[in-house]
Amino acid sequence: MAASLSVNLISLTLSTSSDILIAEMRLATTVYFAPFMPIALFIYGWTARSSVHWIVPCLSFIPFGFGLLGIFVPCQTYMVDAFLETAASAVAAMVCLRCVFGALLPLVGPITYRNLGMGWGNSMLGFLALAVTPVPFAFMKWGGWVRKRYPVKL
């Protein structure tokens, strides 16, 4: 769904503009998907307790997955389009960065949840997700300039 929305949005943009595909156009759909992740984290954090039915926190995984894929797919295609000659290395760097976060977050999680509890622990993750929400906007605005100013030289 994210991929077809991205392609449709790019097609619409190309038909109304200069017909030049720039890599930053791939990030346009992240604007719509980015809010789903922090919202899902807040829902999960504040409904994961015994007084709330168990399905409610589980249902928060739906918007989380929706937001995750809606951000992941356009970012992946952006990396391929932005670094055509070194696309495999760009995607590998993205995978490595994701793996570093995947390795470090479980080390911090138990301490965070023990000190803050489920509500505030997940709220902290939600605020972190909210803080990085503007990153695709920055790439859309300055990404082309940075790529032209600092080209990848092989």
Provide a descriptive summary of the structure in words:
The longest helix is centred in the last third of the chain and has 45 residues. 77% of the residues lie in helices and 0% in strands. The protein has one domain. The radius of gyration is 18 Å and the shape is elongated. The protein is built from 7 helices and no strands. By secondary structure, it is mainly alpha-helical. The two termini are 35 Å apart.
What is the residue-averaged pLDDT?
86
How do the SSEs run, as a string of H and E? Answer: HHHHHHH
Helix content: over 70%
Number of helices: 7
Overall tally of structural domains: 1
- Which structural class best describes the helix and strand composition? mainly alpha
Summarize the structure.
This protein is mainly α and 154 residues long. The chain is built from seven helices and no strands. The two termini are 35 Å apart.
Task: Write out key terms for the chains shown.
single chain, 154 residues, mainly alpha, 0% strand, elongated
Per-chain topology:
Blueprint: H1 2-16, H2 30-33, H3 36-47, H4 55-59, H5 61-82, H6 87-131, H7 135-149
Helix pairs in contact: 3-5, 3-6, 5-6
